[in-house]
Amino acid sequence: MVREQFQILLAALLILIVGFVGYRILFGADDGIALVVMSTDGQVVRTDAVGQQTVAGAGMTLHPRDTLKVGAASHADLTVGDHTRLSLEAESTIRVVGVDPTGVRVELEEGRVRAVVSPASPGLSVTNRGRAVRADDADFSVAADADGGLVVTSIRGELSLQGFDGDDVLTAGQQLRGAPGRASVTQDIPIDLLLKLQWPEQAVVRRENDVILTADDEYRVQGRTAPYARIRLRCDDRERVGRADAEGRFLLSIPLIEGLNIIDVTADDANGRPQTKQVKVELDTLPPAAQVGEFRWNEGRR
Questions:
Q1: What are the strands, taking DSSP E only, across 67-117?
Q2: Staple 56 to which of 44, 100, 141, 264, CB 3.0 to 4.6 Å?
Q3: What does the mean pLDDT of the chain come to?
Q4: Which residues of 221-247 are buried (b: 16+ CB within 10 A; e: fewer)?
Q5: Which residues pair with 134 in a beta bridge?
Q6: How far apart are CA 145 and CA 177, in angstroms?
Q7: What percent of the chain clears pLDDT 90, i.e. is strictly above it?
Q8: How many other CB atoms are there within 10 angstroms of residue 292's CB atom?
């Protein structure tokens, strides 16, 4: 009888241990390691493993299979302990793959993340479609688009790579670009940030002060800059935010008001370097004033 009770007790204890270990593996609850939302700005939504959505806020812990989506003109900062930071830019989505003593692993589905990883914290891996970037002591960024294009930039430290056509290391000051069906290309980070605006083909230009005249109440700004650079248009209290594509091309629209509109176009690359140019657009939708001739009595009489 005592032996049977002991066996039952032992079996129950074993079930508890297995369940506890399984829970810690599933939710990454080892030794206080946690991926936590530090701050948000704008629209940031967490979707958990069963599809329930919650507005993300400071102090929220993210678990494996959670998805975090950052909306337009929004931003989110995450932390692992006191030393590692992960920032999600506008229109970025990550899915948490794992959180344990070996490191934090997130899948970047789309958008751009910047990370500062300290050796005092577990390492950080950012994955995308079978490719992986791991850092144990580095500052870096990863940008990805919906078509599988990817740009990895190492600002400080060394990155370990997997799935990049033989490239397995990226050192500080280097940038790697990859796309499905193409060999990845590694180069030094450009010294200057390119920002070239394309002049509208059908605009009437007042050349003495470079003002674009238009009758449309919305102006489209297009041009070229660094791949996946963040683009911001700002005119008084109007603002639009977007991102360049894998080739650095962008196209954004901003509403106009009657009269002169001075639009600041700012590109922000993976290194956080801004470049700004200005466009002046004059909206004129008013019909020309009627010309009333002057009449003089007796004019023309002899």
A1: 67-70, 75-80, 84-88, 92-100, 103-117
A2: 44
A3: 85
A4: bebbbbbbbbbbbbbeeeebbbbbbbe
A5: 125, 160
A6: 12
A7: 58
A8: 6
Alpha-carbon span 149 to 265, nearest angstrom: 24
Q: Answer yes or no: is pLDDT of 109 > 90.
A: yes
Which helix or strand (DSSP H or E) is residue 205 part of?
A: strand 204-206
Contacts of 205 (CB under 8 A, 6+ apart): 199, 211, 212, 213
Report how far residue 151's alpha carbon sits from residue 141's, in angstroms, rounded to the nearest whole number. Answer: 8
Report which secondary-structure segment, H or E, holds 127. Answer: strand 124-128
**CA angle 41-44-47, nearest 5°?**
160
Which of 70, 92, 84, 157 is closest to 120 using CA atoms?
A: 84
Return d(Cα 149, Cα 301) in angstroms, integer.
Answer: 81
**Residue 249, Cβ neighbours under 10 Å: how many?**
13
Q: Tell me the pairing of strands 35-41 and 249-255.
A: unpaired
- Rounded Cα distance, 123 and 293, in Å: 80
- Structure letter (DSSP) for residue 81: T
Distance between CA 222 and CA 248 in Å, rounded?
A: 11
**What predicted TM-score, i.e. pTM, was given to this entire model?**
0.74
